[in-house]
Design a protein that fits this description.
The complex is a heterodimer of chains A (about 230) and B (about 240).
Chain A lengths: L2 H14 L3 H34 L5 H11 L4 H12 L14 H37 L4 H11 L1 H16 L3 H7 L9 H11 L2 H33 L1
Helix pairs in contact in A: 1-10, 2-5, 2-6, 2-7, 3-5, 4-5, 4-8, 5-6, 5-7, 5-8, 7-10, 9-10
Chain B lengths: L11 E10 L2 E11 L4 E5 L6 H9 L6 E6 L9 E4 L10 H11 L4 H14 L15 H14 L4 E5 L7 H16 L3 E6 L2 H7 L2 E6 L2 E7 H6 L4 H7 L5
Helix pairs in contact in B: 2-3, 2-4, 3-4, 4-5
The chains are: A mainly alpha (about 230), B alpha/beta (about 240).
């Protein structure tokens, strides 16, 4: 049996037998990325709605900034968060560097621009359709923004899933701020990078399989939700 | 009769109003008065500025010059509603669309339920109140938009070519509903380029052409002997 087939067989075994180490790493990855996505949603969706609906000074600059931040290299973001959270940094007193909380902060910051920019586009399109009607009905800016979020919710779920996919597949930032500490901050992507460099391919492959499965399930869920919503609500 | 909820927004008076955007005059020389209980049709060929004038009177666009007052106030009153040419409906049920408008107006709970039921019954949509608004036919969508506006018990109802994309049967249904709403005391201001429809419904006619207000006359006079050659040409079918 060639090395790849052998590693794949061992990896499949790890997944099939729910290897405790594998389960622990996957659980931490999911906890970190789901929490980061929720935090990013709470900040990113209102931000996207505000840019789409609001008419305030600096709106265009903010739009350009948010769009640009979508392309921010994760390692650069990781470095900035590291400096902020390090003992000498402005947020060092919280003592969360090299903890899952630091990884949540890094992932949330990474995907806030993605959620804000994509949701802004969706809500701006809806706003161009709804604006006169909502103004005619007497909706204020906040009320209009909430209406847009609710009415585009199924498209926004896809945006959140895209953000989650980006967060869970990210390696650079969480490696820097988490430190890849065994049993504490070791997530799927950082483990894959480490185990591959060590030559322990079965665990890396097993995590790769799980990661691909998660991404597939997330995308399938996004498609299903959109299809269901189209049939149910038009 | 409609009970105004606050200081009346009638009459609507427009003196020397002009609407310009990016240096282009969309509507100019508007001098008109909308009195309580009237049914005014804004008539004119395509591109005459009818929709812009309607939006001006509803307060959706501000005049670039001139004075616009609702019941003597420069502040747009709440007791108005508008139905757009292409009904804008939210992604929720027909009843929920009406409920949304009522909630914005501060009407909730049992009073809202009663108004939703009444309004949907009025336009013949009570049986499909739970259906998604996005799946309604063109005629049903327009009737729902009218129900949503009517549920607000507006003092003035603005309608922007509400039957422009409807077949004759749906058109007649919408006209009947609008007529009933007017008979119950709501002031109606409606745009159309359909002469026959204006003849059927209007008490007053405002004629627009190329962004200029040409005349405002009682419908009876307008259709028998228009005051201006432009309106006469329109009636002859030379400008459509």
């Amino acid at each position: 049996m060639d090395p790849f087939s052998e590693s794949l067989t061992l990896a499949t075994g790890l997944v099939a037998h729910l290897d405790p180490n594998l389960v622990s790493i996957v659980s931490l990855s999911l906890r970190v990325s789901v929490t980061a996505t929720l935090i990013a949603a709470v900040i990113g969706l209102p931000l996207g709605a505000a840019i789409a609906v609001g008419r305030f000074k600096g709106r265009r600059v903010l739009t350009v900034f948010v769009n640009s931040m979508m392309g921010l290299p994760p390692v650069v973001l990781g470095l900035v968060v590291y400096l902020m959270l390090s003992r000498a940094g402005p947020l060092g007193r919280f003592g969360i560097l090299f903890t899952p909380e630091a990884m949540i902060v890094a992932q949330a910051l990474l995907i806030i621009p993605i959620i804000a920019a994509l949701s802004r586009q969706i809500m701006a399109d809806a706003w161009s359709e709804y604006r006169e009607q909502l103004v005619s009905l007497g909706a204020g800016t906040l009320s209009a923004a909430l209406t847009l979020i609710w009415d585009t919710r199924f498209s926004l779920i896809t945006v959140l899933l895209a953000g989650f996919g980006r967060a869970i597949a990210e390696v650079g930032a969480v490696m820097i701020v988490g430190g890849n500490i065994n049993g504490v901050t070791r997530v799927m992507t950082t483990t894959i990078a480490l185990e591959t460099s060590k030559g322990d391919l079965p665990l890396a492959l097993a995590l790769g399989l799980v990661l691909i499965a998660i991404v597939l399930v997330v995308n399938a869920a996004a498609q299903y939700v959109r299809g269901w919503a189209r049939v149910r609500y038009g | 009769m409609v009970e105004p909820r606050e200081a009346s927004g009638l009459p609507i008076t427009c003196r020397g109003c002009e609407v310009a955007r990016d240096g282009v005059r969309l509507v100019s020389a508007v001098d008109l008065t909308i009195e309580r209980g009237t049914f005014t049709t804004i008539l004119g060929p395509n591109g005459a500025g009818k929709s812009t004038l309607l939006r001006l009177l509803h307060g959706l666009v501000a005049p670039s010059s001139g004075t616009l007052r609702w019941g003597g106030s420069e502040r747009r009153p709440r007791g108005q509603a508008m139905v757009f040419q292409h009904a804008v409906l939210l992604r929720r049920s027909a009843a929920a669309n009406v409920r949304y408008a009522l909630a914005l107006a501060g009407v909730r709970g049992a009073p809202a339920d009663a108004r939703i039921d009444d309004a949907l019954a009025e336009v013949g949509l009570r049986s499909i109140g739970n259906r998604s608004a996005r799946f309604l036919s063109g005629g049903e969508r327009q009737r729902l938009a009218i129900a949503r506006a009517w549920a607000l018990r507006p003092e003035v109802l603005f309608l922007d070519e509400p039957t422009a994309s409807l077949d004759p049967k749906a058109t007649r249904a919408v006209e009947d509903i609008v007529r009933v709403i007017h008979e119950r005391g709501t002031t109606i201001v409606m745009t159309t380029h359909n002469l026959a429809q204006a003849r059927r419904l209007a008490q007053d006619v405002v004629y627009l052409q190329e962004g200029r207000m040409i005349e405002q006359s009682p419908a009876r006079e307008f259709f028998v002997s228009p005051r201006t050659p432009e309106a006469a040409a329109f009636m002859e079918g030379e400008r459509l």
